[in-house]
Amino acid sequence: MEKVKQILRRFWKLIAAVICFFIVQFVQVGGYYLFELAPFGGDVGAEVVGAAAAAVALVVLGGAAMLKPDWAKIGETFRISWWTLAISAGLMALSIFDIVMSGEIAENWLPMLFYTLVFCLGVGFLEEILLRGLILEGLLAVFGGRRVGVVICVLLSSVAFGLMHIDWYSLDSSDSMQVAQAALKVAQTGIFGFCLAAAVVKTGNIVGVSLVHALDDFLLLLPSMVLLGDTALADYVSTDTEQATATIVLYVVMCVLYLPLLISGFRALRQSDVPNLGEFIHDEPVLAAGGAVPLAGMPPAGASYEAGYMAPPAMQQGEPLQQAQPVQTTQPLQPAQPVQPAQPLQPAQPVQPAQPVQPAHFPQASREAMPSSSQPYAAPTSAPVARPSGAPPRPKGL
Question: CA distances (Å), 295 to each of 9, 285, 288, in order?
Fold first, then answer.
């Protein structure tokens, strides 16, 4: 039952994300008419108002953490997508060189520089929050349990990003040149979107890809909008046969140049954590096979370390592990010999009292035999000394 509730909740997140996607589109149109008479025009107003509405929708669905500026994640996003900025910078340099050589620089280039910068920031944040914030995160909530599902989510959001750049209402499906231009433009922008979507999956941050997108558009629009003062938006599908041919060649070249972005995107996906249910389901544990719930205290799927979970310790690069030696089997223990019962202690015999020691009897020599202290000392002579009578016999050798 718990697993069914989780599945329904995830599908509801996807449905809510799609609904918010279309609501933001209507708000964007309203912003255009609201600021149409403003000095900066309706285009800038539509992009800025739409970006603000998309950010509100992202917060409501639970993706507020994606809008938090994180310089480490922003730097990681630029590292993944730097190749597209290099291509756009090269195209900008060629266009600027051609404009400078022709001497057709507009006089109001400085105000147009500010106008272009605000416009590109609005486009970058609006499209990234819509596609990589709402749509991608909604898809991850349903299909992000496995790596294959994560790749499918990235592909679907990238295709949707490419389809947004074509005016399908004015496209003549019977004209093969127009169809070819539309297909190649979808492929080109889809590759670009794939790289940015992979960066979002890896970093969980929308600010970095929004800045990359805005900078890429700024590099491409700077020659025409700033130096020439042309505010008309480019049409990606041309009805003129000669111009359509040149556009097709340009799109083919751009698709070839964008191939390293596919490699960078797949590398970022391979380094990403799986399962990845996105930021909309960051507070829900992933059910294992059979509906088991992880033990209490484990971080939920998709939880970021900024949310309070401790980062895993970094593994130190050490020496390769040596193969363990096989354990020598020991000899089986011999059964212990039974312990013989000790003999009972015999009662100790009573100690017989010792007989009193009789004092030794020493015969006393007669006082006459002892010399008197009053008599003078007489030197010994060789004559034998007369032994007193009654003295014990003298031992031999003394």
Answer: 21, 10, 11
- Rounded Cα distance between 27 and 47, Å, is 10
pLDDT tens digits along 206-221: 999 999 999 999 999 9
Q: Considering the domain boundaries, does residue 83 fall inside one?
A: yes
Closest CA to 34 of 25, 22, 24, 44: 44
- 96-126 pLDDT, tens digit per residue, is 998 888 878 888 889 899 999 999 999 999 9
Structural domain span for residue 46: 2-291
- Residue 271, helix vs strand vs coil: coil
Q: Can you tell me the distance from the alpha carbon of 392 to that of 95, in angstroms, rounded to the nearest whole number?
A: 149
Longest Cα pair distance anywhere in the chain, in angstroms?
171
Dist. CA 154–CA 61, nearest whole Å: 19
Provide the CA 63 distance to its chain's centre, in angstroms. Answer: 18
Q: Which residues contact 152 (CB under 8 A, 6 or more apart)?
A: 139, 143
Number of domains, the chain: 1
Answer whether residue 395 is part of any domain.
no
Q: Copy the structure tokens of residue 302.
A: 């998709």
Is 332 within the bounds of a domain?
no
Domain-located, residue 10: yes
